[in-house]
Known about the structure:
Elements: E1 4-7, E2 13-17, E3 23-32, E4 38-39, E5 57-61, E6 65-74, E7 93-100, E8 106-111, E9 125-135, E10 139-148
Parallel strand pairs: 1-10, 8-10
Antiparallel strand pairs: 2-3, 3-4, 3-5, 6-7, 6-9, 7-8, 9-10
Amino acid sequence: MARTRTPVVAGWFTHVTLASGEEEFRLLGTRCTACASVFFPREDSFCRNPACAGGELAEVPLSRRGRVWSYTDGRYRPPAPYVSDPDVPWEPYTLLAVELEAERMVVLGQAEPGVTTADLEVGAAVEVVPGVLDEDADTVWTTWRFRPVEVRS
């Protein structure tokens, strides 16, 4: 039986297969129709721009690429209330702050598994890709990750 793929947070990203067979993965934000401010995580109630009285927000796909703004690694198991199985060895992970290409806003996310701080530098190009946060017998909990973009000459 196939497991259900479920986003960790509904409405924060989309993952579709195009007619060409290519997969497209995008973070989803919202844009104020009055001042054009873009928000991620998405805002569905009001414009967060204090200088704007607008309130109508439209969903927008965000840039697939950006540049590393900062990064670090998580080498320890966080304390409660973080949920983790103490019987499973802790796996270090890399956390990135990425300035998205068009929006010029910084978004946080984990690096794709296998990407370490040694693979990164501030200003390096990265792209958003689908990832798995957790899984059980019935469900694969999906999220987003960042991976370095190979420089093509």
